[in-house]
Amino acid sequence: MAVSGIYKLTVNSPRGQQQSTLTLKEEDKSLSGTYAGQMGSTNLSGGTVDGNKVKFNVNINAMGREITLAFDATIDGNAIKGTMNTPMGGSDFTGTKES
Length: 99
Prior knowledge:
The chain has no helices and eight strands. It is an all-beta fold. It has a single domain, classed as Lipocalin, CATH 2.40.128.120. The chain is globular and about 35 Å long.
C-alpha cells in the first residue's frame, strides 16, 4: 500500500473542526513528513508504518508552550482516519489523499 502522499485532514477538536495538511513519506517501515495546521508547519517525528497503519508525533508551540500531538491512523486507499492525542485529550480526524 502506498502511504506516501499529501492528505487534507479535518480534525474534530474541542474547538470545532480544523483543517490541516499532512505530507507523508514512507521509507521501508519508517515515516517522515510535515504537518501544517492553524499553529504552523512542523516536521513529523517517531513515524512508523505497519501495513496500512501509521503512527507519528508532531511537536507544536501552543501559547508559548511546546506540546506533542500523537497521531495513530489507518489508511484505506485514498482515505485516512484516526486519532490525534494531546495533553488535553484525543480528537478524531479523517482525510483524503490529494496526491
